Amino acid sequence: MLKMFDLPCSVAGTDEAGRGCLAGPVTAAAVILPKNFKSTLLNDSKQTREGDRNKLREIIINEAISYSIEHVYMEEIDKLNILNASILAMHRAIENLDCDPEYIIVDGNKFKPFRNIPHECIIKGDAKFFSIAAASILAKTARDEFMKEIHLEFPAYNWNRNKGYPTKEHRQAIREHGSTPYHRKSFKLLPEQLKLSL
Q: Which residues of this UniProt protein bind a divalent metal cation (predicted)?
């Protein structure tokens, strides 16, 4: 059951979406929720149906003290690597909040200090604390919208369905049509990239 992170100061939760994808940005959100926030619907975005995620996005946007969503695109992912790009996306999201938090809670186990604000990494934090779960929802819904938009440009890859993840249909489309400007060049797009012809 989700709960508020219990500190007598403003706490921002942050999370990212799209880290394991072959195409598209990695997207992060940061959210500061009011102390009395409650929701029986809110959960980790991976455990929430798309229709519920869209309802929750509106609730979070309307009730949050502050929220911010940031994309880090393919060029920066290829330059920095996906871990550093994910952390950069979270930093940018926190930086663009309307007010500076006094404490940051992060989903996962990797983060870099931001402006000397104390932080805590929490494994499966999106299934434990409301503000991380809210950030998870905002990041996921924003990224899904982006992937649906670029699907119209490159419909063969079915990004409206697979959202850029390495599904069989996505990889088959790469075999048939090659890569696009939205693919991450530093990622192994096809398993046969590891094979050598002798």
A: 15-16, 107
